[in-house]
Amino acid sequence: MKSLPATFFARNTVQVAQDLLGKVIEVNSMKARIVETEAYGRDPASHAFKKTPRSSLMFDTSGHVYVYLIYGMYECLNFTTEKVGEPGAVLIRAVEPLQGMERMKKKRKTDDVDNLCSGPGKLCQALGITRKLNGTKVGIGVNVYDDGYKVAKIMSSSRIGIKDAQDLPWRFFIEGNRFVSRAS
DNA sequence: CCAACGATGGTCT
DNA sequence: GACCATCGTTGGC
Prior knowledge:
Blueprint: E1 2-3, H1 6-9, H2 13-19, E2 24-27, E3 30-40, H3 56-60, E4 65-70, E5 74-80, E6 89-99, H4 101-108, H5 120-127, E7 142-146, E8 154-157, E9 171-174
Antiparallel strand pairs: 1-7, 2-3, 2-7, 3-6, 3-9, 4-5, 5-6, 8-9
Helix pairs in contact: 4-5
This protein binds a DNA duplex through strand 4, strand 5 and helix 5.
């Protein structure tokens, strides 16, 4: 399994979001396959629509981990994209558990495998991802690998949980995968 | 089954 | 003080 190079992330955000599907992430020695992502550029639904203290990572880094708190109780995992100076990030919305499933079940307080990582807040709970990782480079606390897995078909839809920019089909997921947060 | 809602705290105006 | 890139529960059918 080879780690993704920094150049993988320093590209068009929508392209990176699609290319991350099927890749393996490793955190706290647990492993999972990415099955659902969303692209966030400088659009009205994105934190990077305006540069603020929180969103500055999206402008100033590429290939770094961006973790933020949402609704006061959950965290969301992103990877920053584009070349430095250009804002962008990919939200990881769902992953398929591969290794360390027993620890994921404990952290999520459920034995239902389909409910471990099928949402952005859920997967952070399962893998123990917190804001402590915010701003770290990919390859330190969070690793991303290409294990050669080929995605058969990529589906897209509008992004979930936002009201602005519903016309942009920037949510991507692996067709038919049972671990995505929703089927369509 | 599924739509509605409350929990909960950081971020921004 | 309003708003959230969410989730689990509740209460109606």
